Amino acid sequence: MTSPSSPDLRNRLAPLEMDSGEFRRLGHMLVDQLADAMAGVALGKVTPDETTSEVRLAFGLGQTLPEQGMPAADILSSLVGRLFDHSLFNAHPRFFGYITAPPAPIGVLGDLVASALNANVGSWRLSPAATEIEAETIRWIGELIGYPAGAAGLLVSGGNMANFVGFFAARAARAPGVRVDGLAASPQLVLYTSAETHTWIQKAADLSGLGTAAVRWIPTDASLRMKVDALETQIDADVRAGHVPFLVVGTAGSVSTGAVDPLPALARICRERGLWFHVDGAYGGFAAAAPNVPDDLRGIAEADSVAIDPHKWLYAPLEAGCAIVRDPAALRNAFAYHPPYYHFDEEVLNFVDYGPQNSRGFRALKVWLALRQAGATGYRRMIADDIRLSQLMAAEIVGMPDMELGTQALSIATFRYVPIDLRASVGTTTTEDYLNRLNQALLDRLQRGGDAFVSNAVVAGRYLLRACVVNFHATQTDVEAVPAIVAREGRLLDREIRDV
To answer: How crowded is the C-beta side of 393, counted as CA atoms within 13 Å?
Structure first.
């Protein structure tokens, strides 16, 4: 019985309710606005040159939480326009800064549908359709990169988390007592990786309790690939010191230059010594599907676990990372617990047993839809096109007198602006110091300018600009425009600095 002051909940109308008519009207409005905004991205700058305060002012940020709400139509009417006016666009055909791809339109629509379903893809019982679609998506990703049948995995937020999953699977497989007794019950566990490996490895060593000192940074050769002989020497030294080697991490496409470690040789060493072999293929792993890539990339199929990102070279909207393991039991052994309040059927697939998350969104739908739309042949062609465009950019750089190519591998080119009058003194301390300062300042100018967006790499002490092509909107005209833009801004900046 309700009291006189209590609301009548028999016909409850919550503030967030929206009837089907209003939802349809606002949805149509947003899709129309999004279609226009997405079509116009290529016509503008990659990003506006705005300050933090200007962005906050555009959205009226900094106010206190409103006590009373407002109509959804008023909130949404100008939302798309403002967001597109004040954002960076990785969908722009001249965005080459980081390894973030433009979103496939079918993936955008897939995210809308997935949000409406709002499945919790932790257990099969809570998400039967979503669970089975994710399982098929994992199988298809494995097929695309040549991974063996029978493998399993799950979708996560991105490369860091996908690599973390592989890391913890390795720890559970090679030091199973740690889950119960902790690290204190085991000799020092140590792992091996290239000096070019992404910083996720430090986070994983830290958060797992091993500590960053457990990471053995193996030197690289002139092509920035892990030295196999140096790896074996370090493993031998650790064994003599009483440590327990458990993991080797190979890189399939380094973040800085796209270098690919000698994966087959690393796999052989791991098999011979009983170590877990994990491949960080977050960027370059999908290139294993393409023709004319380094033979070593095929070695990804020999790994015990692989991290790979659909939101990179499958062009899925963020977030979509993927962890795959050769033996599905390795994930259950690393993550599964079964408390009495989990009433989940253990005979079906429950992704809660495969990774650290319990609550999981329906990430797979956008990836699965795009795989169906493009097919394996379509993805092979798009990835091969991106690689070829990077090679064309590198060729354009080589042909310019005040540009210098650093590296080109997979779809990454590194380069720098070198004033013509300094070319004869390249390599001297004074000139190298100046070129590093010049190109660092040039990067800031380029990113603010918005005509093309690149990032940076440091290779052999040289500060280089870096362009990564994972962009199905990019054309030959776009990549060949970048060196000219860099040279134009470089000349202006060099004059400004030396005239001071």
So the answer is: 35
